Amino acid sequence: MGRTGKLKKKSTSLNSRAARRETSPSADVDKSLRSMPRIEASSKSPAIHAVHASAGISKKKSKTKAISRAQRLRQQKNIERAEAVLDQLENKVAKSAGRAKIVKARSAQWEDLNSKNNIATKILQQAEDSDDEQVDLQQSSEGATNANRSVFAQPGDSIPPAEHGTIDEDDEIT
């Protein structure tokens, strides 16, 4: 296979995009001029704009005819109907806002209840932990006194006796 020769560098044409994107000679101007405020074009007065607003092609507007009695009554009836619909909408919006307030209040109550419940459970856990520690201490101190205890229940004991009295089989009801 043959080798291709090196491509010749083409000069950019004056009308090319790259030529247009190159820095313009005005970019070399002194930087103090760049910081100066630009003079804005004097704005045209509103009166001049008003004159030009109606210039050009515009669609002819039809002349308004006098409305017949039936048309006027129909129009009034429709306006009243629209007002009634707007009133209904306002009532619906007001009721919806009231329901939203109730829901928010109820959720706030639940949040308060949950926070109180969490606090109460923490207090109970701490109390149980301290009770467990006290029971452990009592059991260790009672271990020495259990050897001196009698087998019979004392009036202050909360533990029931180990054995019950003998059951008389003749007294059973069949």
From TrEMBL:
It comes from Talaromyces proteolyticus. The keyword DNA-binding does not apply. It comes from the Eukaryota. This is Alb1-domain-containing protein. The keyword Nucleus applies. GO terms for cellular component: cytoplasm; nucleolus; preribosome, large subunit precursor. PANTHER family: SHUTTLING PRE-60S FACTOR ECM1. Residues 136-151 have a biased composition (Polar residues). Residues 19-33 have a biased composition (Basic and acidic residues). Residues 1-76, 126-174 are annotated as: Disordered. It holds the Pfam family Alb1. Residues 1-11, 58-75 have a biased composition (Basic residues). GO terms for biological process: ribosomal large subunit export from nucleus. Keywords: Cytoplasm, Nucleus, Ribosome biogenesis, Transport. It is found in: Cytoplasm; Nucleus.
